[in-house]
Amino acid sequence: MAVPKLEKEHLHMIPEFSGEVELLPEFISTTSKIVEYFYDNVNVNNFQNFVLLNTIKTKIKGQAKLNISSHQCDSWEQIKGALLSTYEDRRDTYTLRIELCNAKLQELW
Asked: What is the superkingdom listed in this entry's lineage (predicted)?
């Protein structure tokens, strides 16, 4: 099956990400869907893949760009992994419960 042609309007669908943790899920979800549809897994050297990955990199701005600059990011999976390791919330449910209880107690004081 041929890979669909990547158009400029498809690239505009990729949101910008500057490090706002609350926007990371949207950035990853939207970008993953575009990569799944347009990335040529058979011919990884396809120029369309190059354009797609470089566009994704240009959509990462400011502090987020600086934070992942030390990671090797030659694929969407590597970019996504770098973003997740930098911005994903690592607290477990136990810790979140304690923090929630402490916040509620502080409201009462």
From this structure: Eukaryota
The contacts found for 10-13 with CB under 8 angstroms, 24 or more apart, are: 10/34, 10/38, 11/51, 11/52, 11/55
Q: Token pair for residue 16?
A: 């910008």
Task: Answer yes or no: is 51 within a domain.
Answer: yes
pLDDT band, residue 100 (cuts 50/70/90): confident
Domain enclosing residue 68, as ranges: 12-108
Own/partner contacts of 26-31, CB < 8 Å, gap of 24 or more, are: 27/59, 27/83, 28/80, 28/83, 28/84, 31/56, 31/59, 31/76, 31/80
| 6 within a domain of the structure (yes/no) | no
Kindly report the average pLDDT of the chain as a whole number.
Answer: 92
